[in-house]
Structures are given as C-alpha cells and as structure tokens.
Design goal:
Elements lengths: L3 E4 L5 E2 L7 E4 L5 E9 L3 E6 L5 E5 L5 H10 L2 E4 L4 E8 L5 E9 L3 E6 L2 E6 L8 E6 L6 H8 L8 H13 L3 H14 L6 H17 L1 H15 L3 H14 L6 H39 L6 H24 L10 H7 L9 E4 L9 H4 L16 H25 L6 H7 L2 H15 L5 E8 L8 E8 L2 E8 L8 E7 L1
Antiparallel strand pairs: 1-7, 2-4, 3-4, 4-5, 5-6, 8-9, 8-12, 9-10, 10-11, 13-17, 14-17, 15-16
C-alpha cells in the first residue's frame, strides 16, 4: 500500500550546523557522511563532509530501512494501518480456501460474494463449517463498496475522524472519495491545530497518485496478486512496470514492492508446504493402501523412496503459481522451515502389524539398546546394514512359512487387515523412515492377546497332571507391543 508521510510540524525544517554529522546508507550500498540542511516530504538536502558537494536526495535514494529510520528521526510519521472488515472463510475438501461475504444460503448451497462476484458453493464441498474472520478490506470489497459500508459510521462533524476515514479510503484505493472526505475535514479544521498541515500533505500524496493513476492501478494490481499468493504473475508485472515506467513518479512505492517481494514469496511458499504436505501425502498413501495384494517389502521401499518424490512432484506443480522456475530440489529447504510456522503434529501407528518391522525396530525407543557397536560407523554403513538385516528377516520369514513354522506372513496380514489399518501402517513407516518428517514421540501399547509377554501359555492335562506349554503369540508374533509414532 502506498505509504502516506505525515509531517509532524512544518513542511520543511532547517537543521543547525552544530548537529553531529549523519551517516546515510544509500540504496546502492555507499555510505554518505554529511550534514542535513533541509528535509521535506520529498527527501533531503545534504552537504557531503568529504568533498563539500551539495546533494538533493529523494527518500527512494536511501536504503529502505535507512529511509524509514530517517523519516522517524526527522519528525515524520508513517501511517500503515490497513482497514479490516468482517468476512467468512470457507475451507473446501480439496484444501482450497475461499474468503468473502456469505450473502445467502439454502439447503444445498452457500452464496459467497467477493467484490462484485457471487459464487455458489455446494455444501458437499465444505471441509468445515464457515469461519468468521477479519481480513483487509481490499480482499473482499471494491473501493466504492468499502466507502458505502463505512461512511455512515463516521462522525461527519469531527475533522479528525474524517481525516482518518480519508486515510482508510486511500489505503483501499478509493482515491476520489478520499479527496472528497479531505475537503470535508479541511472545512471543519481550525488553524490552531496541526490538522490543516496534515490534510495538505495527504492531499499532495493522493493527488500524486491520481495524476499517475494508470501506474498506481498497476502497482495496486501487483499488490493484489501478492496478497493472493500469485507471485509468478506479480513478478512478471513488476518487470513490465520497470520496463514501461523507468522514471515513474511512484518509484518509491515500486521499489518498496521489489524490496519485500522475495521475502514475502519465500514465506508464502514455506507456509503453503507446512499446510499442505501432510494432506497431499495422505491422499497418495490412502490410494496405495487399497492394494491388498501388494508385497510388504516393496511397499517399504516405495514409502522410503518413491513416495517422497511423488509428494514433491505434486507440491511442485502447485507452487509454480508462486515461482514459475522453482525446482524440486528447492522444496527441501522450504520444508525444513515448517517448525517456524508451527507445524502440526500428526500420529500414525503400525497396530497389530508392528511385528512386521522385526523385534529391534518395533521396540526401538522402548528397550535400552547398547549402541557401542555403532560408534564410528557412517550413516551410509548403518543404512546398508539395516537393508541387509531387513532382507535376511524377509528370507527367514519365507523359510518359516514354507516349513509351517510361521502361520502368517506379512503379506497375509496385509491382505486381511482393514483399509485404515493398512493406511496407518504405511503412513507410520513413511514418516519414520523417509526423512521427510521429524519424530517427536514414540508410544507403545501391550499386545491385547498376550498382555505384552509375546507368548501364550496353555496347560496340557495328562495322567501325571498339568504341564504348562508356551507358544508364540499369534497376534504380535513374540514382539509383545503395538508401536505408534508422533511426527511433525
């Protein structure tokens, strides 16, 4: 939004020479040691202490943070409040979010208005009830709609209230209406206050925008696209603006957009991944979990290698509206920032299929394990040993099944398990072994069949009395527990 600079006192002040020298950081990185002679709404008049040269500097000549510092120190106030209005947020089953005003509803649909457009959304597409929210007015209302909605609430006899209203109108780009309200405020303002000067300064700012309305509307269009996370379009429009308007009077506003653009885009992409990574993964895993005749060892390999790639490819196509040339390798760095965005914790469990992991892996985190054997081993060597152990375990299970020593194979369990159990098992395995997620907690529940002992005790009655016999638990296969994980 175009910043309005309001002078706290006079529109131009002369700085006494006995003031200490200023160190000004210029936009191109140079440091200027100088005395400030004058300053006004446009910038500074300075004299260099190195060569005695006099310079007229606009605010845009200074580094953005430096410009803000000097405006504050020299008595200017930067107004940046953007008016907010009530609205309704709809979350759809495809994770899309729609924001507007609910203007009607019936048994089957909701009517949502944004600006002058009304959309009809079937209730079956809602993932949650509508949520009331406060949003920037320019997200849901046209400038004229905002004016008509707010004008009746403003005291037309209070010049300060009118001035504040005019400022809000400027922020929503209702520029003609802003001038009208400034006229009303000026007619009521007394010369004893500083308000007339503030009104004149604001009129000058709004008039500058009106005189360059086409360029101002182009910048406003870019802001709307940035707010809607359509950064790829906004980036193209910024390049076009610079090419078409090399000497624009609105260079300060343009450069402010450019300076903050990449930071806003990275933040938006990080937030998008934080909100959508889990949902995209769930959709892919649920589909694969429907395959009853799949090989469990193949599923494990798929969850560790193919699934992470599939998730990234899907998210990559969605992020291209923010950055057209984004590459799949860029996603890892963005995804690592999820903790800073309050990433939610999720849970998944292996259930009664925990035994498929093998005893060591199923009970990892429960039993105290001597890790001295692993000291000095590289991560690559550990991974290789783990794969070799998994291969040998699979061979052993196949041998026991062929000889009748084992009544159930992993594939047997997979075929007989319910769809949700298969999904939970595969999701837990992915989260724990792909490297995409960070484990935050591991929990265990004793097997309900053997009470955690791993064996079933029975008594054989004979002529010489009863004899206790132990047999492997058919549910947990001697593992004794069900493993669940929490991850983010």
């Amino acid at each position: 939004m175009i910043e309005l600079l309001l002078l706290a006192g006079m529109s131009s002040l002369v700085c006494p020479q006995e003031e200490p020298a200023e160190l000004l950081r210029m936009r191109d990185g140079r440091i200027l040691v100088c005395d400030i002679l004058e300053h006004n709404l446009d910038g500074l008049s300075v004299v260099s202490l190195r060569d005695g040269g006099a310079y007229e500097l606009s605010w845009s000549d200074l580094f953005p943070g430096e410009a803000d510092r000097m405006r504050s120190e020299l008595g200017y106030k930067i107004e940046t409040a953007i008016p907010e209005v009530p609205a309704d947020k709809l979350l759809l089953v495809n994770s899309q979010v729609m924001i507007g005003r609910i203007v009607g509803r019936d048994q089957d649909n909701i009517h949502l208005r944004t600006f002058d457009n009304t959309s009809i959304i079937p209730l079956t597409r809602l993932a949650a009830p509508p949520e009331p929210v406060m949003v920037p007015a320019s997200d849901v209302l046209t400038p004229e709609q905002f004016y008509q909605e707010r004008v009746s609430t403003v005291d037309s006899n209070d010049p300060l209230k009118l001035f504040s209203f005019a400022l809000e109108l400027q922020f929503v780009f209702a520029l003609d209406r802003s001038i009208e309200v400034l006229d009303q405020a000026e007619a009521l303002a007394t010369n004893e206050s500083s308000l007339p000067t503030r009104i004149q300064n604001m009129r000058r700012s709004v008039s500058l925008v009106l005189e360059n309305r086409v360029q101002a509307e182009a910048l406003e269009s870019i802001r709307h696209r940035i707010h809607r996370k359509r950064f790829a379009e906004a980036e193209e429009m910024l390049l076009e603006f610079e090419e078409d308007n090399p000497n624009s009077p609105l260079q300060v506003e343009y450069k402010d957009l450019v300076d903050r653009f990449e930071e806003q885009r990275v933040s938006a992409m990080e937030d998008y991944l934080t909100r959508n990574w889990y949902g995209r993964t769930v959709a892919i895993v649920k589909k694969r979990a429907l395959e009853r005749d799949a090989s469990v060892s193949e599923l494990q390999t798929w969850a560790e290698t193919a699934l992470p790639q599939l998730v990234r490819e899907e998210l990559l196509s969605e992020l291209q509206v923010m950055k057209a040339d984004i590459q799949i390798e860029d996603l890892d760095a963005l995804w690592q920032a999820r903790v800073d965005y309050g990433a939610k914790r999720h849970q998944a469990g292996y259930g009664v299929g925990s035994w498929i992991l093998g005893e060591d892996r199923a009970r990892e985190g429960l039993d105290i394990v001597d890790e001295s054997e692993d000291e000095g081993k590289s991560e690559e060597l550990k991974a290789l040993e783990e794969r070799a152990k998994r291969y040998l375990d699979n061979l052993d299970r196949a041998r026991r099944q062929s000889t009748g020593d084992d009544e159930q194979s992993p594939e047997d369990w997979w075929r007989k398990a319910g769809a949700n159990s298969r999904f939970q098992w595969l999701m837990a395995y992915y989260a724990e072994n792909s490297g995409d997620y960070e484990l935050t907690h591991v929990s265990f529940v004793d097997c309900a069949t053997c009470a955690g002992s791993g064996v079933i005790r029975s008594i054989d009655l004979g002529s010489q009395g009863g004899k206790t016999r132990k047999s492997p638990c058919p549910t947990c296969h001697t593992i004794g527990i069900r493993r669940s994980i929490t991850f983010r």
